[in-house]
Design goal:
The chain is of the alpha+beta class and 456 residues long. The protein is built from ten helices and four strands. It has one domain: Outer membrane efflux proteins (OEP), CATH 1.20.1600.10. Strands 1-2-3-4 form a four-stranded antiparallel sheet, with no helix packed on it. One of its GO terms (cellular component) is plasma membrane.
Length: 456
Amino acid sequence: MRRSALALAVLTLAGCSFIPTYERPAAPVAAAWSGVTPVAAATPAAEVAWADFVSDARLRELIGLAIKNNRDLRVATLNIEQVRAQYQIRRADQFPTLNLAATGSRESNADDSITSLYTAGLAMSGWEIDFFGRIASLKEVALAQYLASEEARHAAQTSLVASVASTWLSLQASDELLALTQRTLATRRDSLRLTKLRFDNGATSALDLRQAESLTAAAESALAQQQRQRALDLNALTLLVGQPLPAALADPAKDAVTTQPLFRDLPAGLPSDLLTRRADIRQAEQTLIAANANIGAARAAFFPRISLTASVGSASSELSGLFKGGSWGFSLAPQALLPIFDAGRNRAGLESARVGREMAVAQYEKAIQTAFREVADALAGRATLGEQLRAQQAQATAEAERFRLAELRYRNGVASFLDVLDAQRSLFSTQQALTQTRLAQQQNQVALYKALGGGY
């Protein structure tokens, strides 16, 4: 009965764990999106693969190249392998390590004789018997860190998809603005040529000529700016893709299909969906779980640490007799260390672990708040950018007609050249704003996909 009680006590201690019970913190956000009816999505955004979200074939090809070649994503993938190896190391710490060992020693005695001892066999050195769960707690820390690294890789891929799509849209808008500026510059040069001809023949004033020259110079400046911006967008896209862009994919405006939507429309879903479907929030929660498990390891450090060193094999006082019959032997050396005085090291370690958990809670809550703000911003954009785009399209149509009428009136001597220049300047600004708003609307769709934790 004594032996049974002792075995039961050992088993009880071996199953001991000082890890606090984990409870997910309450989300510090509202239960519904502002201005959006809370309806569960039939297909959540996190389950929509990026290839299904993106409709344009060339953009899908670019994203595929980026996933294959982007260095940041490659580092995130390699980090998973590194953290997985750390977890395997922690798991291996729970088991004894066996080694083949051979030793030899010779020492002199007080009577000037020499004692020799040779051994060969299996040896186990310093195996910690995890009675109080210290190693198990560290294994749980490593496991949570490994899971967090996987979520970090998923978040990195979603961010990469969004960045490639957004930069590709910027490059497309730069091409549109470049073409618009080139057309405007050609129109202004024609106007300047006509004005100079009229000035040479005394039909217009020097003021009209200088105004025409100013507008032409402004268009030339805008053209240089748009050329520079397109080069910057192309460089940014090349960096994201991780290789020089194929010639067929370097021009987003080429053979573009404008009648088909570029992206699939996504439902907002319920706010609670983000907690389980957005990768960066899941990453922050795994980091919190790791910090919580670290408290268990810090608590276990206050209790005895029991280790075992043992060997079994052949032993002999002569090297030639090491493997002869009757030379078998073994050694067993258990050790128990109970911390009595450590100048407050263990207590400081426990306090550090507790503070680390509080920091992880704050980071988890911040990740939730950031995610909710990003979704709310994207939903606000979706609700208003469509109306803004329609209004600016109507304004651009009106300004184009105004410019046509002003030019017609000027050529018939009814209006001044100042009216033509003002209409031309206003039309150019409106067309630029229209392109920028269209870009903002498309990029907002990408931002909503990322904010909702789009699939990978």
